[in-house]
Automatic annotation (TrEMBL):
Pfam families: Pyridox_ox_2 (PF12900). This is Pyridoxamine 5'-phosphate oxidase family protein. It comes from the Bacteria. It comes from Cerina litoralis. InterPro entries: Pyridox_Oxase-rel, Split_barrel_FMN-bd.
Length: 165
């Protein structure tokens, strides 16, 4: 069998990209600090209603950086093996939320992550109580969303089991 030029790597359709975002809760956030790119893992919730990524953070360089330069990249992967994987890259705009809006979205984030973990891991997430107590210890976190402007994805292997082909 002759392998194609890109090694069997194919494009995910937009709907498949969004499904991958909704099936996961940990991704990598890329942002610029003093003209240098940084990448950090974050817990997130994909808000399908608003086509955005929700998250929170304590104050620090990540939040300061995104306030200064709001364009970000965000990546989520599902790697089964070197021959079977999916990857989604999101471009978007950082938006800090405040007041009652922040509380509303923090609640949506918390419930969304809990639901995603329960679906993905077939059980009740054990970390939610720990997660909630950490939020209370740190005071009010900075709640933010990434408004998705573009999403692209690639995959390799047979994901027809997941209904993706």
């Amino acid at each position: 069998m002759i392998e194609d030029r890109n090694g069997g790597i194919k494009n995910l359709k937009e709907l498949e990209c969004l499904r991958l975002l909704s099936e996961n809760y940990v991704g990598r956030l890329a942002f610029i600090v003093s003209k240098n790119p940084y990448i950090t893992p974050i817990t997130y919730f994909y808000d399908a209603e608003e086509n955005s990524i929700l998250s929170y953070s304590a104050p620090g360089y990540k939040i300061e950086a995104m306030r200064k330069y709001q364009s970000i990249a965000f990546q989520v992967d599902d790697v089964q093996s070197i021959q079977e994987w999916r990857s989604v890259l999101v471009h978007g705009k950082f938006e800090q939320l405040g007041g009652s809006t922040a509380k509303k979205y923090l609640h949506r984030f918390s419930e969304g992550v809990q639901h995603t973990i329960a679906e993905k891991d077939n059980g009740t997430p054990k970390f939610i109580q720990d997660f909630s107590s950490r939020l209370q210890q740190r005071g009010i976190p900075i709640v933010y969303r990434i408004r998705i402007t573009d999403v692209v994805g690639k995959y390799r292997g047979d994901f027809s089991v997941n209904g993706l082909q």
